[in-house]
């Protein structure tokens, strides 16, 4: 059995990444950082709640907010750490997996304040409210619970595609000529059932499919059933493009979108 061992990413590496961060990443365009962080939490984040009390070693444990992603997104999460007033730490696990972890009480409170009332899926909103309930009881606070919002989570599970077909004349091996054409596609996938709490994503995906006037399909992969919607009409793809121009992506999906 192979066990992945996590190790801390040094401060020297993080400082070097900060020097190379694109200036465009550091800007909170239209004050949308909270919504962006909420969307990222929807797809790549989870919350771990400890026992409410002291351990056998009389240590008080805090919850942990953990984002898991590919190492190519380290710059993105370093930027997020900067936006969160330098809260959180980094780990590397396995060959190319990184984790951004927020575990101190001030960082947790700032995270809650940043994404409160901005989540879109019931399961993650419930997870956040469980965290708020835990923190309120443990530290005698009165943080209000999060009210569910609705939007998308494309930074984590969205895909952009461009298909270019070059013109080809009719020939002995080709019965018909082929005209030049370009087609665009936006695709969004979500697990039918979330692994952590067994909640269904069907309702939110159905609403998105109806909103974008596209078909919601279901397919199976190694992890189970997956909900998938595809936007292919130029009119609807144009709407998606305008949306992400107004509320830009920041991670590796930003490059895919611009391409």
Automatic annotation (TrEMBL):
The family database entries (SUPFAM superfamilies) matched by this protein are listed as: Homing endonucleases
Gene Ontology molecular function: any one? endonuclease activity
Protein name (database record): Homing endonuclease LAGLIDADG domain-containing protein
InterPro entries xrefs: Homing_endonucl, LAGLIDADG_dom, LAGLIDADG_Endonuclease
Supply the source organism for this entry: Aspergillus ruber (strain CBS 135680)
Please name the Pfam families in this protein's record: LAGLIDADG_1 (PF00961)
Q: Which GO terms describe its cellular component?
A: mitochondrion
> Which residue intervals define the domain Homing endonuclease LAGLIDADG in the entry?
37-130, 153-259
């Amino acid at each position: 059995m192979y066990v992945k061992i996590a190790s801390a990413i040094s401060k020297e590496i993080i400082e070097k990444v900060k020097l190379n961060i694109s200036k465009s990443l550091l800007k909170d365009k239209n004050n949308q950082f909270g919504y962006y962080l909420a969307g990222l939490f929807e797809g790549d984040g989870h919350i771990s709640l400890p026992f409410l009390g002291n351990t056998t070693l009389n240590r008080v444990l805090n919850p942990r907010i953990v984002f898991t992603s590919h190492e190519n997104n380290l710059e993105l999460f370093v930027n997020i750490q900067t936006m969160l007033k330098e809260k959180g730490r980094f780990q590397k696990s396995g060959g190319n997996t990184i984790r951004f972890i927020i575990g101190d009480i001030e960082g947790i409170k700032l995270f809650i304040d940043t994404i409160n009332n901005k989540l879109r899926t019931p399961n993650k909103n419930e997870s956040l409210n469980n965290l708020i309930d835990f923190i309120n009881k443990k530290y005698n606070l009165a943080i209000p619970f999060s009210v569910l919002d609705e939007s998308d989570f494309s930074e984590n599970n969205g895909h952009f595609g461009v298909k270019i077909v070059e013109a080809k004349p009719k020939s002995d091996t080709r019965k018909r000529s082929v005209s030049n054409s370009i087609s665009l596609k936006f695709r969004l996938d979500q697990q039918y059932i979330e692994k952590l709490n067994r909640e269904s994503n069907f309702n939110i995906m159905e609403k998105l499919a109806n909103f974008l006037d596209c078909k919601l399909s279901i397919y199976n992969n190694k992890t189970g059933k997956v909900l998938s919607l595809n936007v292919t009409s130029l009119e609807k793809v144009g709407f998606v493009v305008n949306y992400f121009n107004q509320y830009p992506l920041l991670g590796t999906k930003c490059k895919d979108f611009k391409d």
